[in-house]
Amino acid sequence: MVRSVFKKATEEWRKDTCIDFYESYTAPNKIRVFMEDGCWSYVGRTGGEVQDLSLGQGCESVGTAAHELGHALGLYHTQSRYDRDQFITVNVANIKPDWVSQFTKQTTFTNDNYGITYDPGSIMHYGAMRFEF
């Protein structure tokens, strides 16, 4: 199931970008997909040749896999853009404490938007009521 979902997520990225994916055990740089607790990937390469991406129980949707793949490719959450306050209001008091870090604003140094307009419908943007009390 996870293999199929991840493959569909790569197809979503492939059809809308210039990024291509292929399965390889010998490529020098790769994304290792596995089933651990939760849905996660570090943002961008963390050093070494392997970028880990977990699609544990409850992470079986193509949207979730595409979102985590975005992190593996180096994308932060859209709601973490340094210019987000011009477009949305984040009420930290309504966010569960364990999830506040998912809304931390990046700086212009850590998150260059390359002139791309803020997109609240981005696969990298959480929904309005995500992680609320």
Automatic annotation (TrEMBL):
Enzyme class, spelled out: hydrolase
GO MF annotations, alphabetized: metalloendopeptidase activity; zinc ion binding
Swiss-Prot/TrEMBL keywords: Disulfide bond, Hydrolase, Metal-binding, Metalloprotease, Protease, Zinc
Binding note for cofactor: Binds 1 zinc ion per subunit.
GO biological process: proteolysis
Origin superkingdom: Eukaryota
Listed cofactors: Zn(2+)
InterPro entries: Astacin-like_dom, MetalloPept_cat_dom_sf, Peptidase_M12A, Peptidase_Metallo
SMART domains, A to Z: ZnMc
EC number(s) given by UniProt: 3.4.24.-
Chain ranges of the Peptidase M12A domain: 1-133
Pfam families: Astacin
Active site feature: E68
Residue positions binding Zn(2+): H67, H71, H77
Protein name, entry field: Metalloendopeptidase
Source organism: Heligmosomoides polygyrus
